[in-house]
Write a structure and sequence with these properties.
Blueprint (H helix, E strand, L loop, with lengths): L2 H4 L3 H5 L5 H10 L4 H19 L9 H11 L12 H58 L5 E6 L5 E7 L4 E7 L8 E9 L2 E8 L5 E5 L9 E8 L12 E4 L3
Antiparallel strand pairs: 1-2, 2-3, 3-6, 4-5, 4-7, 7-8
Keywords: Cell membrane, Membrane, Transcription, Transcription regulation, Transmembrane, Transmembrane helix
Organism: Streptomyces kurssanovii
Protein name: Regulator of SigK
Length: about 250
């Protein structure tokens, strides 16, 4: 490979895309070529900065700014023998821009994949922490020294139990034999405050069982209810309660 061809390999070298023989030829050429050395440093710095930003969502205008800079940035022509300068300079400049664009595209792709993987792992950790908090809250109500429970039957053989701790000012609800709600529906818990119903959150059902600490304080609630509501829950019940249980004194 002649020296003129070596000047065109900076982008492929930075992206580790050269075959072994050309990689070795270019590394022998690099120490004695200031223009190639400078271009390699600039391309490596560009890809390094982009790839290190895996935990930050890029602004929407980033791609437009980068591509505009690629199109507008004047590229210094490589130093080549005079007889090949006319064709070599134009080709070198075009390939230099192509290499920079390829570097940016590759770094953006790898950064997007890494960002997606990071976000997936972060979401899993957040879900695990939420599950741990719910389990700890439920255990604290069930194990409270003043915990009292009352049970009752649902339709179709399901049963429900409400456990109350006055010192914690919390109630927990446990269900057994409760089928999954219809498509697009959820189970919603309610505190019965006199003649009105106050939302106490949603309850997931898995394997015909469910357990949840009811959201909000007991205040003056006299009982609890369970209804089937549209996904996301309702401000007030839109269906008749599946069950109504009186809170233990």
């Amino acid at each position: 490979m002649n020296t003129g061809d070596l000047h065109l390999l900076t982008g492929a070298y930075v992206l580790h895309a050269l075959p072994p023989e050309e990689h070795a030829d270019f590394e022998r050429h690099l120490p004695g070529c200031p223009s190639c050395s400078e271009e390699v440093r600039e391309l490596a710095a560009t890809t390094g900065k982009l790839a290190s930003a895996v935990a930050v969502v890029p602004p929407p205008v980033l791609k437009q700014r980068v591509m505009a800079r690629v199109a507008a940035e004047r590229q210094a022509p490589p130093v080549v023998p005079r007889q090949s300068r006319r064709g070599g300079t134009r080709r070198g400049r075009a390939l230099s821009r192509f290499a920079l664009a390829a570097s940016v595209a590759a770094a953006a792709t790898f950064g997007s994949v890494a960002l997606w993987q990071y976000q997936e792992a972060q979401d899993a950790r957040d879900a695990a922490r939420r599950t741990e908090r719910r389990a700890a809250d439920l255990a604290s109500v069930l194990a409270a020294p003043d915990a009292k429970a009352v049970s009752g039957g649902f339709a179709k053989g399901a049963t429900g139990t409400v456990v109350v701790s006055r010192t914690l000012d919390k109630a927990a609800f446990l269900a057994s034999g409760l089928p999954n709600p219809p498509e697009g529906k959820v189970y919603q818990l309610w505190f019965a405050d006199g003649g009105s119903m106050r939302s106490a959150g949603l309850m997931d059902v898995s394997g015909a069982t469910g357990a949840a600490v009811m959201e909000g304080p007991l205040d003056g609630a006299s009982g609890i209810g369970v209804t089937v509501e549209p996904a996301g829950g309702s401000a007030q019940p839109t269906s008749d309660p599946l069950a109504l249980l009186t809170l233990p004194a």
